[in-house]
Amino acid sequence: MVKLEGTYVIDKLENIGKYAGIGANFAVACDFVAKGDFASLKVGRNEIDGDRVFVNCVDAQYVSQADRPNELHRSYFDIHIPLEADERIGMAALDPTAKFDFDESSDCGLPKQPVDWFTVKRGEFAICWPVTCPHAPAVTTDVPKRARKLIVKVLA
């Protein structure tokens, strides 16, 4: 099943290769994801292709929708891959009237706007486009918990 909204995608990991043409660095990212060698990753930043493609392996604190702000990046696509628990993620197209501060050094802004909520299951991924896709990752509808996930960062 593919859900495509112009600024984000949710699909099965087995289909990651279909997205290799999205951007200049996506072929490298998709090749890494397709290999599925996630067990060898250490918590923290893992280099794939320098600053062009890297993976943040995190033990994310999953929280309620009300407790998770939206985030937006300008330089990087995010590929979210839940490993230990299904993940609720809010995503939307950026409201063109949204006003928010942006920290260039961390490539992150926190636009406040409504998002639509989706479940990304283990064995699936979500791609969030830079500039146009505010997203609120690591959300649970259950008791708050920690669970390992990957965020593949792909330079646009």
Give me some keywords for this one.
single chain, about 160 residues, Jelly Rolls, about 5% helix
Explain how this protein is built.
This protein has one domain: Jelly Rolls. The chain contains 1 helix and 12 strands, in the order E-E-H-E-E-E-E-E-E-E-E-E-E. It has one helix spanning 26-35, and strands at 3-4, 8-12, 44-49, 53-62, 76-82, 87-91, 102-103, 108-109, 116-120, 124-128, 135-139, 145-155. The strands form 3 sheets. Strands 1-2-10-5-12-4-3 form a 7-stranded antiparallel β-sheet, with helices on one face. A hairpin with a 3-residue loop joins strand 1 (3-4) and strand 2. The longest helix is centred in the N-terminal third of the chain and has 10 residues, at 26-35. The radius of gyration is 14 Å and the shape is globular. It starts with a strand and ends with a strand.
In short:
The protein is mostly beta strands. The chain is 6% helix and 42% strand.
Order of helices and strands: EEHEEEEEEEEEE
Proportion of strand residues: 35-45%
Mean pLDDT: 93
CATH class, named Mainly Beta
Number of strands: 12
How many structurally independent domains? 1
Strand order in the largest sheet: 1-2-10-5-12-4-3
Count of helix runs: 1
Structural class: mainly beta
Question: Which stretches of 5+ consecutive residues score pLDDT under 50?
Answer: none
The CATH architecture would be Sandwich
CATH fold naming: Jelly Rolls
> What's the overall geometry?
globular
Tell me the name of the CATH homologous superfamily.
YhcH/YjgK/YiaL
Radius of gyration: 14 Å
The helical percent reads under 10%
What gap, in angstroms, lies between the N and C termini? Answer: 25 Å
Q: What about the largest sheet?
A: 7 strands, antiparallel
